[in-house]
Design goal:
The chain is mainly beta. It has a single domain (26-224), classed as Porin. The chain is 14% helix and 54% strand. It has helices at 2-17, 209-224; strands spanning 28-43, 56-71, 76-91, 104-120, 125-136, 149-162, 165-180, 188-203. A hairpin with a 7-residue loop joins strand 7 and strand 8. The radius of gyration is 22 Å and the shape is elongated.
Length: 226
């Protein structure tokens, strides 16, 4: 039931904003991106768990992916991506087995499908929000819950356009496995704050309203010259 409700909440905004007016840019953007950031395992519950590993320590997270996007209306863009990421986390044993503080680490990989909705404001700035579908790869973390499930993203950034090439810079936040696919043992969720840089190419649409208007104007001018 929780997963069904989350799915409805994620899809409903896209359905609401999908335009009835067809007069907008239908060009498609495809590209690649990379992201680096700092993570921290967090708990979304106060439930007491026997022999839980704690405290946790944040380390680096790295991402690389490909993306494709299209405009839903004059101000909204929907982006779908495929992303591979590697995360390193630190933890201490509880109770400790050494007198001095000792931090252990483990590294694991995730394959993700982020679905992001962008809202453009002035001067190519935008805000973005969306969901992530995460799948743990073969090297699942041992101490940390496997981050498989639906997550959330929030960000804001700017696009720099050079003809049909676009560079986008997006500081953002991610919270993974908010709704896990399987029951989590210790209820940890991976929180990541980072900076994403993307490079894309814009494929102009043959049905671009501006181009059609220009073609009609040219055709009328040609007919008028006879």
């Amino acid at each position: 039931m929780i997963k069904a409700i989350l799915f409805i909440l994620l899809v409903l905004p896209y359905a609401i904003i999908y335009p009835q007016d067809q007069d907008f840019d239908r060009s498609i953007m495809t590209g690649v991106y990379a992201k680096g950031g700092w993570n921290m395992p967090v708990r979304l519950t106060t439930k007491y768990i026997t022999e839980e590993t704690s405290p946790w320590h944040g380390y680096q997270s790295w991402f690389a992916g490909v993306k494709v996007s299209g405009m839903l209306s004059e101000h909204y863009r929907l982006e779908i991506a495929a992303c591979y990421s590697r995360h390193k986390v630190g933890f201490e044993l509880s109770p400790p087995i050494y007198a001095e503080e000792k931090i252990y680490t483990e590294t694991f990989d995730i394959f993700s499908i982020p679905v992001t909705l962008k809202r453009y404001v002035q001067n190519s700035y935008y805000i973005s929000a969306g969901t992530i579908v995460d799948f743990a790869l073969h090297d699942k973390p041992v101490r940390l819950d496997a981050q498989t499930g639906f997550g959330l993203t929030l960000g804001a950034g700017k696009e720099i356009r050079i003809k049909d090439f676009i560079i986008d810079i997006t500081p953002g936040l991610e919270l993974h496995s908010v709704v896990p696919f399987t029951e989590a043992d210790n209820q940890q969720r991976l929180f990541v704050a980072g900076l994403k840089i993307g490079f894309s190419y814009n494929f102009p649409s043959a049905a671009d309203p501006k181009d059609q208007d220009n073609e009609k104007s040219s055709a009328k001018a040609s007919l008028g010259s006879y």
